[in-house]
Structures are given as structure tokens and as C-alpha cells.
Amino acid sequence: MTPFTHFVRLVPYAPTPNVYQAWQEPDLLRAAEAQPDMPVIAGDTLRFLVPYSALGKRPEQDVNRLAFYWVRHRTDPLAPEQFDPAPCGRLRLQDGANYAEIRLQVSAAPAPGEYRQFALCYEQGGQQRPILGTFRYQTPPEGVSLTAYIDAIRAHYVGYPYTPVTVDVRGNELLIRAFHSSRFRLGHVPLQIGLGQVLTANPNQPSLHWQPVGQVDLPAEDRYQVTVSEDIEAGNTFQLAGRSYQAAGTEAPADVLAALGVPDGLLTLPAGTDPRAGMLPGTYSQPNTNRPSLQLFYENTVGGTDYYRVEVGPSVAPGNLYQVSIDGQPTQARLAGTADTAASVAAVFAHSGGKLPCPAGKVPQAVVVAGNRLFANTNAAALSCRLLESLPARTRSRYVSVISSSIRRGNRFVLGDRQVTVPTDQTSPADVARLLDQADYPFTVDLAAGQTPPTAYAEPGPRYQAPEHLAAVELIAGSIWRPHGPLVAEVRVPRSTQPGRYHLHLAAGVDGQRLNSRYVSTFFQVLDSPLETVLLQYGPGEGPGLCMGYEYNEPGLMQQVRVPVALSTGKQRQKEAWSSTLDRIPFRTMASAERVRTLTTDAQPETFHRALLAALKHRQVWLLPPGEVRPIEYRQEGEYKQTDLGGRRNLQQGQAELVEVHSLVDDQPLGQAGGLRVGADADALAMGLVRVERVEVPGGIAVYLESTTSGMIRQIRPGSLVPPGGYRLRVRCGRDALLLTAFVNNIANLRTTLTAAKLNRTDELLTLNSEAVLSITSVSLANLYATQPPTEYPRVPINTTVTGSTKPASSPFSTEWGAQFT
Fold it and tell me: CB atoms < 10 A from the CB of 790, how many?
């Protein structure tokens, strides 16, 4: 297990001089427990992760009622606390705890004129229950493109009326996020693709009813209760009233009763008739496992007859089959019995002076089969009849069943408490009767005066069935819910804060002149100048997951702290390779350069260096040095070096090499076949495509290009190739607003501000010509700048798509969701 490491930590608050435990007097404790004083500037925005377990068993119960307060450190424990009564931040769950994530893949659009539907279903009580409604689609006669079909699916989920739902389209994949609300909480429910709720009934009108045929005189009868034991083995023979059934060994008692013509276990016979009930144990067979053998050896010839010596192997078991065949003569065979031995079997074939005679010139053929051996059953199977009642001669009203010939798949027939669904369109009335556990059709029922026949009716049932009407949609993942990831602390240092030593209190409000503190943080040093500090942002770079010991469950989540480090001036790191011609003329084959800077920390405890190393090794690292407006993305390469400075506190100084991402310039290496470019450049040139060089956005945020001609939406990454044409950008922002710039061939073509927590779609067209190079850069606008605001840029028109629509519910809420979702 790796302990949680961070620049800032929280511990439970206790109003004593030792409230801060290992962080109150770090020089008195071992170095591994010492925490650093983190520098901040008035106006800074901080964002850091807090372990889920740091706030007890159920921190989500405290999140909404607690807030951060900026408190000045008191050196005298008896002195009153000095704090700003206005909250300066909050603690919240990551977005992954507030929604269930589902990923779908649409394989194909339906053919012209076809109807398709599907639903995301969970299983309850053996039945599939749909959630988020049922998608239904009737394809027009002219057909539908896959893009339009996917857009219809997206619109269905986005317009769901009972809870907010967002859908991101990535080619033929859909990423669905269903947010939790008072009426919806999906969680970790296993899902599957099902047909959902079918609203259209079959067009036929099936029927099942009783037809009275008048009075009948019934003779005296005896009624028996027939019972079959559970112990049934292969070979058991059950006999009842002239019927016989031999078991295969896999039957249940109900199967045997149905085979004997009494599925309900009731047998009615004329009075005084013997039911002739019984059971014979019978036998069962098993393949022999021995290895029998039969060999024939030529001995001599006498008077036109060849004589062969017969040898039978010693392994003889009942059921072994021995055969000798001679062309033109009947086959001689012997099935070994329980008393047979090798000698007795050989004697069957060596019947002429102990030898096998054979016409001269012909060769006898010996065949041996291990066969099967019969064993007598010893199980305790039983069939019994118990007389229930003796009925006298009587007069009854007879009803006969009538089943219509109009039968289609999906029709439902009900007889008493028995309900069946027709499996195929070729089902006949007699087949329906058998499904209803009736031996014959038409079947009858005889009732006394005043009695009514059992309930009998039929329903058309749903018109659409799986799999022929099921949409070609696959469930890739889901439902995924991440409720127990680290919490997110978001703090803004008040601009009125004076330089000094401070810490954060997580409190449940202010009570008079004191805070109702629950937790307290490690220390901060408020500085009056940002010199020798850098604002550090770091995140996972991709979607949710683990990165350097931190769990990220929110798209676009970036941690942000100010660290006491210094950056050197930029230098060019160069690489080149040389070769020479056959006549020894040198030439350069490759040259490249990248901008690098050296990061150096001041003296800090070991915990600071562990946290800084974890931060620098993230997939995305942004640094904002003093005096600069835009943060720059870096990657840390090589070893993070630590130098011991000695002393009682065992402080260390760290140093790391940072490479500016996207600063690489080279001479475009040429291949040796005609001087063509290689890799993505070669593909772009050969096919006239557009190459995506950079996509610089916070981790987990996807950038899409929406074609204005085909409507196709595709996610772009560095190295992606897209066809030339007109496009609009789609970006679903995280918690921070973004200033986004699109460069085409290194010229700013589009610059716009994107709204936080929304799906943003630009109205301005982005025209990409053949062989163009596209770069996307962005910077967060969430109060990153403590000392100077960002440069104002002209904005282009932007359309923020609010994912929601109004449509009537397709069914009552309780039917659509199930009890646990209400």
C-alpha cells in the first residue's frame, strides 16, 4: 500500500496546543512526517485532492455543510483565533460520484423501412426492466445514414425527462452520463441491451374461449393422486394405466408425470379400474473401458483350406463384441457375457480342431469392439397412486376449448393460472394446447351446476420481438459509478490577506467569535511577492483513472498549488545525426531542438519532494512562472535529483529537467524512397488529409470536429487525420471555463471562450484545406491569475448547447423505473 502524499493535508481538529499533530512542530519529529509550509499569494486559487477516508466513514454527508475558512496561525495557544468570517472555499465530491457512466457502440443503421428499438435494462425478479426510456426508430423508405441514426439515439437520451443526461458522440460510440437526482440513482447496476417496452400490439386478434356443448352423463369414476419420487435414473421404467415411459436419467418428477399423460398428477379412471401403477428398476449401460483383442495367425493349409490359430486377449468383459468375417461367408460374432473368458470366446471361432478354417486364398478379418455393459439399477425410484375420491354417476355441463387459427409470435394465451407466449408464427392451435399442458386439442372440462370454467383468453401481445427488431447496439461498459474517490478542495485566498503563516479550517460555520472547526490543514505562508514561486497545475491527461497514486474521477480535473521553486531561463536542447556518402562527404540526416528549463526547489522536507515528484510525473503539467500570462505545458524527463542539506530537520533540495511540450522543431526527416515524408505526414500528403498536430486541453476533456457536410462527429487527438472540409468545434468543458484557440498552419484561425460544465459548439466555421495542419490550445480561466489578469481576446460567436428537451413520458414512472429508483 502506498501512503497518500500531498502538499496539503487535513487532520481532525482538536482545540489543544497539539492540535496539528505531526505538522505543529515538524522539527521535533522525524523528517518523513514533516509537512512543508506552502507559499500562496493573495488572490490565488488552490485546488487539491483530499482522501475520501480523511473525513470519516461518510464524508458525502458533511460536504454540503462544511466550508473552508482562512485562519492566521497563533503562536500563543491562549490567544484568540484571527480568521476571516467569510468562507474562502469548499469541499466537494468529484463529478464521477454524481453520475453513472455508460458506453454504447452502434454497429449499423437499420435498412430502409425497418423498425428497430432497444433499451438499457437491468434484471429484477427474472425480468428485464428498462431505464432511461426505450429508443424506437422507424427507418424511412429512403433509408438513414449511420450519423443521423446515432444522432437520433443521442437526442433520445439527452431528452430524457426524469434526470439530466449528457451524451458525447465519438464516431459510432456514445458516452452517456446519467446524473443522479431525487428520482434517479443508478449506481453499480449490471446492464444489458434489451428490447425495452413495446408499445405496439400484434395486428391479429387471437382468441381462446370455452364453448358449451350441453349436458353429459358421466359414469362412476375413481380419482387418484399420482406421485413420482425424486430419485430417477436412466433405465427406470414407469407404468401407469397402460402407458409406459423409460427415463433417460435427466428428468424431473414433473417430466415423468407429463410423459404418462397426467401433468397435474391427477388420474381419473372408471370406477373399479386398476390404475396398474408401477416402476421397474431396469438397467443402464456404460461403455467398457477394457481393451479386448482378437488375433488370427496362419498355421497351415490342408486340402484347399487354410487354418488359423485364434488368440483372444485376457481382458474380457461383458458387452465386448468379437467378430470374424470371411469373404463369401456369414460373419461369425460373439457378444461376451458375464461367464465368458478368453478361452470360451476363442473356442467359438476355433471350431475345427482348435483352429479357424478359411478357404485357401482368402484372408479372415478380425474386429473387436469394447461395447457397453449393462448394470441393474439400484436406485429407489417409485411411482404411487393414492385414491383421492370415488365419484358416483352424475350429469355435468361440458365445455370445449376453442383456439383461433390466427396465431402469431408474441400472442399470449391464458388458461387458469397458466400463461404462455407463442414462440413462432407457425404455431398451431394444437401446439398452443400443448403449451397450456393439455394432452389433446380440443380439450374439455366438465362442471357441476353453478360452476364456471377456468379463465381462458388470449391477447395480441407485443408486435416487436428480439432479436429481429432489436437495434444493432452493443454495451461496451456500464454502469460505472465512482462514489469513493478523493474529494476536491477548492480554495481562494482572500485578496485582503496579509503576509504571514496561515492554515485552513474546514468548519460548519461561525458561532459568535469562534469557528465550529472540524478539520485543519497544514500551514501556508502568504507572501507579498510571487518571486521564486510557480503556480503548478497537474492532471491525468486522459479520462478517469489512477495517475501517480491519485484517483481522478472527473473530466478536466486539474490540481493547482503554488510551489516554492525557481525556473531557469530556457535553453535549446539539440540533437542531430550525421552520415556520409560513399566518397566520404558528410551530411546531416536529422536535426532537432527542444526548449528545456531546470526546476530547482528551496530547502524542503522529504514529503514535499515526494509530492512534487508525483505532480511532475503526471501526464499533464502546466507551470505559470511570475510575470507570465499564459501557463505553459511541460513534461519532466529523467531523474528527480535530491540533495541532502543536513541539519536537524533533514531538509533537502530538489532539481528536475522540464521540457516544454510542443516546442520540438526539426528538419522533417526524409525517408529513403524518393524523399517522401514518413508516418502521419506521409499519410496526409498521400491522401490529401488534414493532420492534427496538437490538442492541448485539460485532462479528460474531449475535443470533437463536427463536419458541416456529413454531420459526422469525430474526436481528435495529436496525430489524428481528418478529411478536408468545413468543421465546427465541440468541447464539453469540465468545471473550468476555457480560452480556446485553433491554429491552422500556425495561424490563429479561431479564438473563443468556452462555458464551464457545458457542451460548447462554435458557430464560426473552421475551414481545413487539404494537407493543412491543425493545432488546438487552451488555458483555464478559473481565477488562475493572482497578480495580473489574462490578456483579453476578441470572442467569436458561440452556441452553448444545453442538453435537455421536453417530451412526454412514454409510460408511468413506476413502470419505467422499478421500485428502487423511485
Answer: 13
